[in-house]
Each structure stands twice: as C-alpha cells, then as structure tokens.
TrEMBL record:
This is Peptidyl-tRNA hydrolase ArfB. One of its GO terms (cellular component) is cytoplasm. InterPro entries: Pep_chain_release_fac_I, Pep_chain_release_fac_I_sf. Its main location: cytoplasm. PANTHER family: PEPTIDYL-TRNA HYDROLASE ARFB. Residues 131-140 have a biased composition (Basic residues). NCBIfam families: PRK09256.1 (NF006718). The lineage of its organism: Bacteria, Pseudomonadati, Pseudomonadota, Gammaproteobacteria, Enterobacterales. It comes from Izhakiella capsodis. The keyword Hydrolase applies. Residues 99-140 are annotated as: Disordered.
Length: 140
C-alpha cells in the first residue's frame, strides 16, 4: 500500500506486479532467474481521487499509455525484491510529481537601480566596441 496523502491511498490489489527476466548482460543469473519487475497501474480503475486521476491523465508522461495505464519496468538490481521496491518508489514519485501544484509566477518590475546598472553596462559595452574600430594614421 502506498500512502500519498490522507485522502489518496493506493492499495496493493490495484497494482499488478509480474516478474520477468531482465534484459542485457549478466551471465547465467540473468538467463535463469526472473528478477526484473513489470508494474502496471490502471489510473481510471483506481480509487485515487478525481483530482489525481485528471492530473495523471493530462500529464503526458512517457510511462502512461493512451489507455491510462502506468507501465514501469524495473531491472536495475540483481534482486527481485529490490526491483519491486524500486518500481513502487518510481510509481509513487511519478504520481507525486504529476499532482504537485506548481506556484504561479507573478510578474515583477525591475528596480530603478537594476535599470541604471543595465544602462551603464550598455554604455560601457558600446564604448568598448567603438574602440575596436579601424586605427587611423595621423598626418605628420
């Protein structure tokens, strides 16, 4: 069971976890043991509040399918138990990130001092560029 908030809880029976064989190099251990974890979580069929469901479905994350199913494959560790924990942590962080309410940006005006510094820098830069011009020879 994953507890997100007091009102948002994911029960273990809503998460489908299957063991599969891991890909890639690893010798004989990879070939005979199913240590990788394939986690599936159906957003629409879950008991999450509607706010969470709508935010997750609108997130457009690469782990969320068109049908609204989160698919996570965990195979970083050699142990099935560690991969299961990793997959559950990734599911929790995905849900927390998608439902985090972002602070709205309020436009601010630049201060008088910052305007003056900007204008001083501009005039210094223009003076520097004027000095880069062609050097003229003075008649003797």
């Amino acid at each position: 069971m994953i507890v997100l908030t007091r009102s948002a809880v994911i029960h273990s029976d809503e998460i489908e976890i299957t063991s599969i064989r891991a890909q890639g190099a690893g010798g004989q251990h990879v070939n005979k043991n199913a240590t990788a974890i394939h986690l599936r979580f159906d957003i629409r069929a879950s008991t999450l509040p509607d706010f969470y469901k709508s935010r997750l479905l609108a997130a457009g994350h690469h782990l969320i399918t068109q049908e609204g199913i989160i698919v996570i494959k965990a195979q970083q560790h050699r142990s099935q138990d560690l991969n299961r924990k990793d997959a559950l942590q990734r599911l929790e962080s995905l849900i927390r990130d998608a439902t985090k309410v972002k602070k709205t940006r309020r436009a601010t005006r630049p201060t008088l001092a910052s305007k003056q510094h900007r204008l001083e820098r501009k005039s210094q830069k223009s003076q520097t560029k004027l000095l880069r011009g062609r050097v003229r020879k003075f008649p003797e």
